Amino acid sequence: MKMCHLRNLLLVVFFILIPVHVSAKELIPMGQSIGIQLKLPFVYVSHDILLPNGEWLKQGDKILAIDGTEINQIQQFTEVKKASELRIERANKEKILNLTTEEIQNVLPFLKDETDGIGTLTFLDPTTNEYGALGHQIVDSALTMPPPFTGGAIFLASITQVKKSEPGQPGYKISVVNKERKRLGSVLYNNVYGVFGKWEQGLPQSLRQPIEIMHESEIKRGEAQMLTAIEGEKVEAFTITIDKIDGSNIVFRVTDPKLLSKTGGILQGMSGSPIIQNDRFVGAVTHMFVEHPAKGAALSIGEMLKKSPK
C-alpha cells in the first residue's frame, strides 16, 4: 500500500524530539496549524535557472562567495553593484560563474537562506514549556536532505483554503503565516519524529487542559478523535476509528462526515495532529495512504517522548 508523508508544497517531510522527560504524565493536546521557519547557514538555489550565457544555476547549488567574499545570507546579494564572479558548490564540487549585475538581480527570487513549511502542533508540556510538532522530520525539497539550521521559530498559521484529497492525489492545506505576529516558540531540533523546541507564549486559558498519556498497551481499536484545523485558526475534534495497533504504530480511518466532505480524509499539513481516545493522549498523525486518503497512520505519543536526540 502506497503511503504519503504529510508535507506542504514547499517541503518534502517525513512531517524529533527535544529532551522531553519520559516521566511526563500529562500533556496539552494542541492541533493548531503552524508555519515553521528554519534559518540556514548558507544561501542556496531553489529552482533551476538558465542564464543568458547558457550556464545553469541548478536546484540545490550552494552559493559560497561573490568576488571572494563569503556569502551566508540573501541580503548580501542586494549590495552587489557590478558584474561579479560567483563561486558555487554543486555535488560537492566548486564551480565559478560570471554574472552581470542584472543577472544577479534576476536570480534573487530563486535564492533561499531558510526553509519554510506548514504542519500541525502536537503537544505542549505545561511543566517544561517544551512542545512537539509534525511527527516526522523536515527534509528540504531542493536540498533533498534534512537542512542544517542555525535557528528557527514556529508561528500560528491560518487556513484559507483546502484542496481535497482524492485516491492517488493527496490534498493539502493552503495557509497564511503572519510572521509579524509574535512567534509561538523556538525550533531547537529537527529529528526523526518532528520539530521540537521551547514554547514562548505562556499558557493561555484558551488552550485545552493537560490530559494523561495513554500507554501503547492501553490503546484500543475503535472510536477516537483527531484534533486539527481545516478553517482559519480554529482547532476542531473529528471522529476517527482506530483499526490496528502494532507497538508504537497506529492505523486509523477518518469516519467524521464533516471532515470527509471537506477534505476527503487526511491532507498534507495534518502531520502532527493529536489523536485522543477516552480523554487520553494516544499519539500524532504522521502519514496518509495515497490510494485511500481516508486512511492514515500515526505514532504513539509514548514513542515520540522516548526518542530524544542523540
Automatic annotation (TrEMBL):
Q: Which SUPFAM superfamilies match?
A: PDZ domain-like
Its domain of life reads Bacteria
Give me the segments passing through the membrane.
none
Q: Which positions fall inside the Peptidase S55 domain?
A: 88-310
| UniProt-recorded name of the protein | SpoIVB peptidase S55 domain-containing protein
Q: Which organism is it from?
A: Metasolibacillus meyeri
